[in-house]
């Protein structure tokens, strides 16, 4: 019999970063990983220790009118070359059928009184790391869409395999069948990640949707727009983004002037790591072989966790290294 129990303090790492009860679509879906059952917590901990690939579920944009929606659908179908799939296996083939769908969605929105800037649809990407079978990603996306939107919001999706990462473009109509508008919150996005990860696991694909803190990561992912601006600046094609400029100014300040949110962040990560160390030692002393193995794996995981480094820390180190570089001698003037 296993001696595993939920590590005291680690429940904060397993807990989603937002209050899941605020998710608007929560009543219609299977809740995943509430964290109250030891079996669920152990399975999640085992996947974290194995560094199971994390799913990506991201809202990439909103279409504002029929023309915008048509251009988006042309993009995800490669101008009609890829098949669009909808609920119950509905298939749209070729640009004429795609154009008809865009017109239907636009027309239905037009008869409903709403804000002038109300979106026609939401564009969502479901993705996994390279090496995952695209067919299983496609099947999981089909189950994900049916579970979340099947009887609420019309949707279509297409699989892309022309990239290292197999991914699905899912387009969901903002106006629901009952007249309710889709307005996802942060809690919805976390719930979507967990639902997609569970759908992949049901199809034999190792997948997780854990908070960053459970994996020892404290930095948020860079926003796409900021990353593109930064890359343009690094290529010498534009001005330094204001966000990067502010981050550099913050990194140049002494440690005593660090932002007030960084201290609790470090303390939280230290608390989680202490809890893991205690649990690793306890499991290694267990009579059950599976517990001892998990304890050894957990110890290795802890030893290989990245240092707790905020973006400010990384930029500060980069600035320090840059200052220490020897300056090239000035050329002799004639």
Architecture overview:
The chain has helices at 11-14, 38-49, 66-76, 95-110, 134-149, 186-202, 224-234, 242-251, 262-284, 289-303, 311-324; strands at residues 56-63, 84-85, 91-92, 121-127, 155-160, 167-173. It has 334 residues and is α+β, with helices and mostly antiparallel strands. The protein has two domains: 52-210, BirA Bifunctional Protein, domain 2 (2-Layer Sandwich); 226-323, no CATH class. The protein has a four-stranded antiparallel β-sheet. The chain has a two-stranded antiparallel sheet with strand order 2-3. Strand 2 and strand 3 form a beta hairpin. Helix 8 crosses helix 11.
Instruction: Count every helix, treating DSSP H or I runs of 4 or more residues as helices.
Output: 11
Q: What's the N-to-C terminus distance?
A: 85 Å
Rg over alpha carbons: 24 Å
**Kindly state the mean pLDDT as a whole number?**
77
Share of β-strand residues: 5-15%
CATH architecture annotation name of the largest domain: 2-Layer Sandwich
Spans of at least 5 consecutive residues whose pLDDT stays below 50 are 26-36
Could you tell me the number of beta strands?
6
Order of helices and strands: HHEHEEHEHEEHHHHHH
Largest sheet: 4 strands, antiparallel
Question: How would you write the strand order of the largest sheet?
Answer: 1-4-6-5
Structural class: alpha+beta
Instruction: Write down the CATH class of the largest domain.
Output: Alpha Beta
Q: How many domain modules? A: 2
What is the overall silhouette? elongated
Question: Which topology of the largest domain does CATH recognise?
Answer: BirA Bifunctional Protein, domain 2
């Amino acid at each position: 019999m296993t001696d595993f129990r939920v590590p005291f303090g680690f429940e904060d790492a397993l807990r989603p970063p937002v209050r899941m009860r605020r998710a608007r679509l929560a009543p219609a879906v299977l809740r995943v990983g509430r964290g109250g059952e030891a079996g669920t917590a152990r399975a999640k901990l085992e996947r974290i220790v194995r560094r199971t690939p994390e799913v990506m579920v991201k809202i990439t944009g909103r279409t504002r009118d029929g023309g915008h929606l048509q251009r988006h659908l042309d993009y995800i179908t490669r101008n009609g070359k890829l098949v669009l799939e909808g609920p119950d296996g509905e298939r749209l083939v070729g640009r004429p059928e795609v154009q008809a769908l865009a017109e239907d969605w636009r027309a239905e929105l037009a008869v409903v009184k709403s804000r002038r800037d109300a979106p026609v649809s939401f564009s969502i990407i479901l993705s996994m790391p390279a090496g995952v079978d695209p067919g299983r990603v496609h099947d999981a996306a089909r189950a994900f869409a049916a579970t979340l939107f099947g009887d609420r919001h019309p949707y279509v999706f297409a699989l892309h395999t022309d990239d290292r990462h197999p991914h699905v473009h899912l387009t969901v109509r903002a106006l629901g069948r009952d007249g309710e508008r889709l307005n996802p919150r942060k809690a919805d996005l976390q719930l979507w990640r967990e639902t997609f990860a569970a759908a992949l696991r049901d199809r034999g694909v190792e997948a997780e949707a854990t908070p960053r803190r459970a994996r020892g990561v404290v930095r948020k992912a860079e926003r796409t727009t900021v990353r593109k601006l930064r890359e343009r600046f690094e290529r010498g094609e534009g001005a330094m983004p204001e966000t990067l400029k502010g981050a550099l100014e913050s990194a140049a300040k002494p440690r005593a002037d660090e932002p007030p949110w960084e201290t609790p962040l470090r303390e939280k990560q230290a608390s989680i790591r202490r809890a893991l160390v205690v649990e690793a030692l306890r499991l290694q002393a267990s009579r059950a072989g599976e517990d001892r193995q998990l304890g050894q794996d957990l110890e290795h995981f802890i030893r290989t966790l990245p240092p707790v480094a905020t973006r400010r820390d990384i930029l500060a180190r980069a600035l320090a290294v840059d200052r220490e570089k020897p300056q090239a001698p000035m050329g002799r003037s004639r």
